[in-house]
Design brief:
This protein is elongated. Helix content is 46%, strand content 15%. It is built from nine helices and five strands, in the order H-H-H-H-H-E-E-E-H-E-E-H-H-H. Strand 4 and strand 5 (142-146) form a beta hairpin. The longest helix is centred in the C-terminal third of the chain and has 28 residues, at 148-175. With 200 residues, the chain is α+β, with helices and mostly antiparallel strands. Strands 1, 2, 3, 4 and 5 form a five-stranded antiparallel beta sheet that branches. The protein folds into two domains: 4-146, no CATH class; 147-177. The structure holds zinc ion (ZN). Zinc ion binds next to loops. Residues 58, 69, 71, 75, 77, 79, 89 line the site of zinc ion.
Length: 200
Amino acid sequence: MTSHAAIVAAETTTAPGGNPTPSVEQSESAYQQIGSSMPILADASNARQANSGQSLDAAKRGPEWMARFGCPVWCVMDHAGTDGEPGWHQGLPAEAIAPTPFCDADPGGDSAVVLAARVTQVNQDPKVFGVETRLWVDVDCETLELDVAQTDVFIARLETFLPQLRALRAQLAEASKDDVPENTEAKAAWLAAPAKAVAK
Ligand SMILES: [Zn+2]
């Protein structure tokens, strides 16, 4: 009932609309508390909001909004708009973005999000289904749902990965020293006579 697949299905099929405009007078104190405890995420959120128009967090929307949709203060979902019904909530994301699109992406495509994570809470009908809060980590089309202990393990493994990545960077720098660009004339000749090239 609260599986990731079910939640995603709900997300893509519900867009209630018609709700009154939420109150924006508010509990800045709760927002400031969140912002000061997660400055890196707050900075990332500002950048995302500038790029995508992502909604405000629940603390900034105010207590009326939070009561109506059951939001924790850190939820940034627009339950009255495109993000669908209440019952699950997501916070600010962290993302690792590649410097280039994936190899099989369309030319001129966006840079690839290699790894993305955000806290997600499912609290629909808590007396029946309880409340479950996890870190959802998206890797390509797959999602991990981690508790705190599992997140610690994941962080430790990423911290092990980074020195390995730096070592590979050094290996790449050495191994690519003698790379040469393609010869455009020779390539054109090769393409003009593919059968001959293959026969060689
Ligand atoms: Zn929410």
